[in-house]
Every structure is written in structure tokens, then in C-alpha cells.
Design goal:
Radius of gyration: 14 Å
CATH topology: Peptide Deformylase
Strand content: 35-45%
Strand order of the largest sheet: 1-2-3-4-5
Largest sheet: 5 strands, antiparallel
Number of domains: 1
Low-confidence stretches: none
Number of helices: 3
Helix content: 10-25%
Structural class: alpha+beta
CATH superfamily: Peptide deformylase
Length: about 140
């Protein structure tokens, strides 16, 4: 189900709780909501649809396909750079620091653990969405 975009900075600035199997329907809603906003957005965190859980979706910049991560954690990062980003939940564009290369540990929908290394724009999108789950707004 496509959900409305949360725009309340007080709600968005609260750190999200870990996702569980009970949150799989919310993860699917997040994926559908991202697909409905692909023309203006490359990633979303669950709190952007009013669900305070550590779930993110992003469009992989190599495959062009949406990907989902439950409880993602950045375990390594390198090559910081300054950039500007916008957010579907917040007006305007703001400066931020991102890393060219990151390693992330996360779970899939079957709660199988994965570890992946990401670079470039895909890494930037993932960092933005993980920040959102941690209540960090740009």
C-alpha cells in the first residue's frame, strides 16, 4: 500500500527501533511508496511513511532496481566528501558529508544476514536513509 509521506521533523528526528518479522508488511508498504515516488526520490526510510522502524529501501544505481534493508548498520566507511542533498520529507537542499565507499550489515525479508560494500551514488543514498532511521535529518 502506498502511504503518505511524513513531514513532521519532530517525528522524523526520533531514532527508530529495530525491525522484526512483524514489520514485513510495513517494509512492503515502504517499497510500494518508493516506487510511487521514483520520479522524485531514490530512497526512503520507514519513518518517512510514519513507521519508526529501521527499514530502508533504495534504488540501486547499477541495476536500477529497488532494494530493501532491515536493520542496516554501516560497519566501515572511507573517502569522505562534501555534498548537498534533498529529502522528500523536508523542504530544500542542505549540505552534508558522505563517504564514497561504505560497508553495510543488514537483514533481508527472510531475516538472513548480509554484508555488502557500496560506492558512489548508491552509497550516498544508503547513508542518507540510515541517517533517517537514526533520527539524523540533513
Amino acid at each position: 500500500m502506498v502511504r503518505e509521506i511524513m513531514k513532521d521533523p519532530l517525528f522524523l528526528s526520533v531514532k527508530s527501533a529495530d525491525a522484526t518479522r512483524a514489520d514485513i508488511p510495513a517494509a512492503m508498504d515502504l517499497l510500494e511508496t518508493l516506487n510511487a515516488h521514483r520520479h522524485e526520490c531514490l530512497g526512503m526510510a520507514a519513518n518517512m511513511i510514519g513507521v519508526s522502524k529501521r527499514i530502508i529501501v533504495y534504488v540501486d544505481q547499477i541495476s536500477g532496481q529497488p532494494q530493501l534493508m532491515l536493520n542496516p548498520v554501516i560497519t566501515a566507511k572511507s573517502k569522505p566528501y562534501d555534498t548537498e542533498e534533498g529529502c522528500l520529507s523536508l523542504p530544500g537542499v542542505r549540505p552534508t558529508v558522505r563517504y564514497e565507499k561504505i560497508t553495510v550489515e543488514y537483514f533481508d525479508l527472510a531475516f538472513k544476514k548480509h554484508k555488502g560494500t557500496f560506492t558512489g551514488l548508491t552509497a550516498q543514498i544508503i547513508q542518507h536513509e540510515i541517517d533517517m532511521t537514526n533520527g539524523i535529518l540533513i
